[in-house]
Amino acid sequence: MQDTAPTPLHVELLGxxxxxxxxxxxxxxxSPRLQALLAYLILHRAAPQARRxxxxxxxxxxxxxxxxxxxxxxxxxxxxxxxxxxxxxxTDSQTVQWQxxxxxxxxxxxxxxxxAATARAELEGAVALYRGALLPGCYDDWIRPERERLHRLxxxxxxxxxxxxxxxxxxxxxxxxxxxxVRHDPMxxxxxxxxxxLHGLNGDRAAALHVYHRCASMLRRELGVxxxxxxxxxxxxxxxxxxxDADPAGRPAPDRYPxxxxxxxCALLHAIWRSARASNPQMVVLTGDAGIGKSRLAEExxxxxxxxxxxxxxxxxxxYAAEGDLPYAPVASWLRARPLPALDNVWLTEIARLxxxxxxxxxxxxxxxxxxxxxxxxRLFEALARALLGDRRPRLLILDDLQWCDRDTLAWLHxxxxxxxxAPLLLAGTLRTGESAPPGLxxxxxxxxxxxxVAELEVxxxxxxATTALAGHVAGHPLDAELAxxxxxxxxxxxxxxxxxIQAGLAQQSRTGERWSGEHAGxxxxxxxxxxxxxxxxxxxxxxxxxPAALELAELAATIGRRFDFACLHAAADAPxxxxxxxxxxxxxxxxxxxxxxxxxxxxxxxxxxTAYQGLSAARRRLLHRRVAGALESLHAGALDGVSGQIGRxxxxxxxxxxxxxxxxxxxxxxxxxxxxxxxxxxxxxxxxALLGEAPHNDPATAAHxxxxxxxxxxxxxxxxxxxxxxxxxxxxxxxxxxVTQADxxxxxxxxxxEERSYAMARQVYDAGLQWLGEPPAGHAAGQxxxxxxxxxxxxxxxxxxxxxVQTHYWIGESRQALAAMNAMRAAVDxxxxxxxxxxxxxxxxxxxxQQERFAxxxxxxxxxxEAQRALVDSPxxxxxxxxxxxxxxxxxxxxxxxxxxTKILAALAWAERSIDLTLLVRCLVYLGVVYxxxxxxxxxxxxxxxxxxxxxxxxxxxYVATARANLAWLAWRAGDLAAVDDxxxxxxxxxxxxxxxxxxxxxxxxxxxxxxAAEASRGxxxxxxxxxxxLLLPTQQRLPAALADPLARAVDAHRAGDLPSAQQWxxxxxxxxxxxxxx
Length: 1080
Prior knowledge:
With 1080 residues, the protein is mainly alpha-helical.
């Protein structure tokens, strides 16, 4: 007999604890203390560990007896949490040991083994294994030396990798390694120098400059010191390389002064963080005027968290006034700030809507399908939440300027805070008062207040003492007493204004040699709009201190109107790279801009950007907007969809209507492909139409087309009245000679009425379309062959209108009128219909004939069904049309071809899931549930009913909610729950009763009536059971098989005759037959 092989065990301690035993995750070890004990035992598994030693190590402040008791309880919990404690853990009265002979793969050991290698591939493997600090949730003293040792080992491994890559002349690989090293150890100044040097070798001085800016800002923010001499020398070399007459470099001004007057605010923020950190996700909103210090407080919170809780992941994003209509822009910024966690392709595909570069990085990743329904944001929302929350590391997400945040991001933020109720997450947002906020912001805050998920902190002005202290820090010496009062009066305690006034005074002193007298410290309000005149003068003087070239670059950056990167700035500047690098460095040294993210910059305050932009003449603004538009076109030539809205805005501001219209239309179409943004598509179309209306040489045909596209989107979003207005505008602009296009617009108009169940109005509009279309082209009546494209187009639009009229008859139960219309159009379909039209025609024929036969199959309906299937085989286009596939499955279901019906409906369901067509998705789920019910598959019925109920309720589709409740009644009958049968069954009947007479879904009430009849019969309630039987036999209901209908009819007759025993007997016979055929 062979020994049983030991169960494989895999343990990960780097990043977060993860144990895989026998291929399955071990999830019961969730408390930090349990994880710490397990980690210690595994790391020291080579020798038994004395219980006394462990007790002291984990409870050094307790008595020996208490510590030993604590250890005993903890070991008991650990043994119960482990899947096979007798195999994994060895214990006796004195020692505890992780089983040393058990084969285990430990990521720490694998990391150390790979880090000791010399080959580049193995070193890269070591870095990949280091997913984070050693058990970051553990704060015990014993783990700190080991955690720091492994941290240093990862850093040295990265340094070796960089050296190897550089030796192999792989600068891209060396740069990637250096970036990783900077992320791994942000306080390691030498790593920044290495990265600067490598960018310089690669010929990218702009990137090297950005690294220097990041380094200098980090050192001043965290340590309050400037870069060391070697870093400054490298920076100077980068600026002066190949330049004969370099600008004096100067030393960078401090980008942060000590925080004053905010001790109480900081204490409150620290308390909020501790609460969120303890698995209580929440949001804190800092409100106040522009320049009052909201962003500084958020940044101080981030710095404090990084010092006191190094395991925390902190990322920052901003809202921008010019980007309020760009969906999920801050979320995309957050996602790009750090590498994404390991995610399945289904989530990466969703995230690629915001980060299209993922499709390039992962060539096998499926492209995201268009989002067609609002409810489908749930899947996108979940993907974004998974990407940002990832592992269980604490998160601090900062969002500056909530007042400019787009509504999609605001809706997602509420979802994020509810996604994982135990997530260690704090979302800190700043909100400027005095600005109009989007409606979604009030909705977000109201919802969070209701759920007790938000704290609000109003940031007020500094008092006189704090104002004077801040001024002293800026000036570099204590402020003269005679200047303190006018400065406080002029700034009103607004920190931004204090800094700007002092710096303007210092600049004056530097130029004139005269000590600043405080002449600019007059009265100034602190409202956000408009900027106080005195403070504007201060900011203008600040910009005036720049060299002419740097000022021009600042104006160009302000024109971009958002965070900018060097590539865009350089392309729009149309100047040598060396010049742009020096000018950008001057802006950074003068604190006009600051680094933002991995490769971008932004103005140090929006008011500086506003002042720079408003100082431009109208002509220069147009010129700069044209340059920025051209730069974006050039930089994103291969992926214009993502920036089309920005390009359109810049062309609009440049006064170039034609390209602006083109890009706005492209942005509208792209928005539905990249994210759920139909409202944004509507906004883009309306902007394009506004420009078309202002164009000197109006283009009615283009305007008509854009109005039609706008109407299509409005129709999709169920905004039927605005959609009609859009289609009417299109009609008014079209050339009256274009009868075919006008007729198609009438068809779309009619569809908006039909969606609102205004069938008479819909029919009236369809008739108007036919009247406008007029007579067939001369000499070509239906049935006469011809090959003229324009004439075929006429007939196909005529067929489209006729099919819509037939569909209207179907929805109001007028099957005879519909069949007459079908017969009248048969010749035209045979000669002129497109492939998809032919399939729809024959399926409609089968459906109508089947409706006339009380929804029961006949030889004639089967013949039409075969015709439709033949047409489908001949049409590759129709085979790719999910609504066609569903309709075929729907007809196969009622012809009792259940296996074939299941195949077709499942295929249509897969298409609907990908294309996000909610109506089709619900229909597939409803009738797939009926298929499964007829196949006696209750578990599958339950799954379909649950999804149908959720989706159909959200989409306000009562006919499908009714069928879902009916199937739940069937499941309740199978489970013997008569109360639930009544609840679901009667709810279904009530919903059907509210529909208009003749609605195509009402004949399927048998789905609810059979369970209700069975429940009443089981109770002995003969009268109520017979009522159900009578309803099942009504001409308005689907015709039942004779084996079911005949005993029901006999039961009704017997009850009417007073023969109650016979009535009961016949009912039972009907119920037995219904059970055998899985109606029941």
